[in-house]
Amino acid sequence: MPKNNSHKVPMPTLERLATYLTALVDLTERGMATISSNEIERLTGINAAQFRKDLSYFGEFGRPGIGYDVEELRERLAKILKVERSQPVLLIGAGNLGSALVGFPGLRAQNFHIVAVFDNNYNKIGRRLWDLEICDVEDIPNTNKDIQARIGIIAVPSNAGQDAANKLVAAGIKAILNFAPTILKVPDDVVVRNVDFVQELAILAFHLSEEQPSV
Amino acid sequence: MPKNNSHKVPMPTLERLATYLTALVDLTERGMATISSNEIERLTGINAAQFRKDLSYFGEFGRPGIGYDVEELRERLAKILKVERSQPVLLIGAGNLGSALVGFPGLRAQNFHIVAVFDNNYNKIGRRLWDLEICDVEDIPNTNKDIQARIGIIAVPSNAGQDAANKLVAAGIKAILNFAPTILKVPDDVVVRNVDFVQELAILAFHLSEEQPSV
DNA sequence: TTACACTTGTGAAATAGCTCACAATCTTGA
DNA sequence: TCAAGATTGTGAGCTATTTCACAAGTGTAA
């Protein structure tokens, strides 16, 4: 009975957990009270046994013959993923992408709050991005002494990515969401996830049949 | 000797291929002529044997004792991922994220060209997003008769995601990059990749130690 | 010419992840 | 109270992916 051992949970399981949570939030809004693993499969495309196995890493959640209480499962998953409480997030890069992220309604809805924005461009520092003042990247460690954020987002051009990562790490950030198309070198106790639009498109392009290009 | 069999290539291999390509573009710019699988490991964090095995799905690329010709490998990977020629891309959603995507320099650099933007908001239709005119989503099939794009990007709120997907499919799109936090139902011959910022942050949050929240 | 250091490509072994299938549990209704 | 039907949690088997380890190819320097 492996209850919580954070480090033995397979990454694919973790990624699906986030998917289940998304689905459950949706179900809550639609007022559904209970759900079976089979319905989860229909909804998410993820195999019902897989769903049950994924949950089993963290304990027992359902009742045989009945299914899962939507509200309870949502809460427990939120707790496992640590999104049940507000998480402060630091953002580096006040460009188009950074702007889109600050304005993204989904983040707030799921308890992630971008509380500070930084840039290294002196034309931007001091200006506002939505309701936040853009600060100098050099101020990151200082600012984070108060905020104590542990999550950072890098939304800068690739050549500035590593530098941004270094500054975040120096400020005590332990988890980085990286949009810069660069492989970041960080200490072992810092987790990085990369999101690369171009790579995603390339993978999609691979699946296209040969034939005509265009443009 | 499985040369090209597109359908037997494991997805993880494909994802790494895109990573290698990113690294090689970088190496080309830095003027490096050849590289060994060990150096690839140092650069990307991906195991050297893994790199060689990944390539082996597509043929032979290196020379024993020497390594790989950076320029040649880059070209061949680009060809495999079908990014060696310009790809037209349709975008649905002219919000903040859509705007960031159109303005994203990396796309153009890797031969992906957003050639048309659509929205269902009548306040936006007819306006401009960068150098593109925002069109009515209803015009997608018609517009794509000329363009013949096969890749589409969905950057709309979650409740509009499935609708956008349906329209893209109706217009002949075969590959979709989906930023809406919804599970899309599409025909078997259409490939979807989901990018969900909130899920990524949730996965990061999971890895944080317990302790204080904030905000 | 030979020995040495390096590096690829790839079967085979090891690891990781997924799915099946079923005992155990629970509800409902007669 | 009992039988039928639904559904969970999980060991066991299966499939997929990663890593190992080595024969074979290549360049360098004596």
Topology:
Two copies of one chain form a homodimer.
Chain A: H1 11-29, E1 34-35, H2 37-44, H3 48-56, E2 68-69, H4 70-80, E3 87-92, H5 96-102, H6 105-109, E4 112-119, E5 128-129, E6 132-136, H7 140-147, E7 151-154, H8 161-170, E8 175-178, E9 191-194, H9 197-207
Parallel strand pairs in A: 3-4, 3-7, 4-6, 7-8, 8-9
Antiparallel strand pairs in A: 1-2, 5-6
Chain A binds a DNA duplex (30 and 30 nucleotides) through residues 10, 12-13, 36-38, 47-50, 52-53, 55-56, 60-68.
Numbering strands along the chain, what is their spatial order in the largest sheet of chain A? 5-6-4-3-7-8-9
Based on DSSP secondary structure assignment, what is the total number of beta strands of chain A? 9
Proportion of beta-strand residues of chain A? 15-25%
Order of helices and strands of chain A: HEHHEHEHHEEEHEHEEH
Average pLDDT score of chain A: 93
Total DSSP helices of chain A: 9
Structural class of chain A: alpha/beta
Poorly predicted runs of chain A:
1-5
Largest sheet of chain A: 7 strands, mixed
Shape of chain A: globular
Rounded to an integer in angstroms, the radius of gyration calculated over CA atoms of chain A is 20 Å
How far do the termini of chain A sit from each other? 57 Å
Helix content of chain A: 40-55%
The greatest interface between two protein chains, and residues involved on each side, is:
A-B, 71 and 71 residues
Multimer state: homodimer
Structure write-up:
With 215 residues, chain A is α/β, with parallel strands linked by helices. Helix content of chain A is 41%, strand content 17%. Chain A is built from nine helices and nine strands. Chain A has helices at residues 11-29, 37-44, 48-56, 70-80, 96-102, 105-109, 140-147, 161-170, 197-207, and strands at residues 34-35, 68-69, 87-92, 112-119, 128-129, 132-136, 151-154, 175-178, 191-194. In chain A, the strands form two sheets. The first copy, chain A, has a seven-stranded mixed beta sheet with strand order 5-6-4-3-7-8-9. Chain A has a two-stranded antiparallel sheet with strand order 1-2. In chain A, helix 1 (11-29) packs across helix 4 (70-80) and helix 2 packs across helix 3. Chain A is globular, with a radius of gyration of 20 Å. The interface between A and B is large, with 71 and 71 residues. Chain A binds a DNA duplex (30 and 30 nucleotides) through helix 3.
